[in-house]
Task: structure prediction
Amino acid sequence: MVTYRDDVLKILFGLSNNMCSFRRSDGAAACEEKLIDPEWYSVKARICHIRARSVGGPRYDSSMSDPERNDFPNLLLLCPTHHTLVDDLEPDRYSVEVLTKMKEDAERNADADSEWSRNTALINRAIPVLISVMERLHSLGPTPRTSLKEPQPGQGAANVQATFTASAGGAVSEEHTVTRAASDESRNDDIA
Result:
């Protein structure tokens, strides 16, 4: 179980201006997604670790302790789309240096005296929800790194057969059977 300190999360939320911290290379905001809203039943915010929280994660640094991994300098708040982009889709593009600069740019542009940053009641309600969301995501483990450029050996289901019936507006229906053999080259589609 990952342990996040409430004071660290309060600072992250307070400096976020309630927006995803994803930034362009020139430091300008690249995402304006709200992270929490009093009308929502959950939070949109995701905690992104600049250096991964666990072995096998993107940008993992074995020299860091667990408390360092979950401390303010190593964390930023992103929307789900950008969290997925940074950690799962293009982790090589988002290096420690790139993410550190994003964090610094987002925090430099934060309005520490905004109405949002003073909304401690909403931030306090959001923190346990965010922790619950992150624990659920962490329990799934890291996304396996598999290229989608070309089929990989053993990728996909093998020896699968599906039968379905199709009809339109009460017209004559047809039954279709699709069989996928063990290799992509030996694919067989039968119509019964």
In short: The first strand starts at residue 46 and ends at 49.
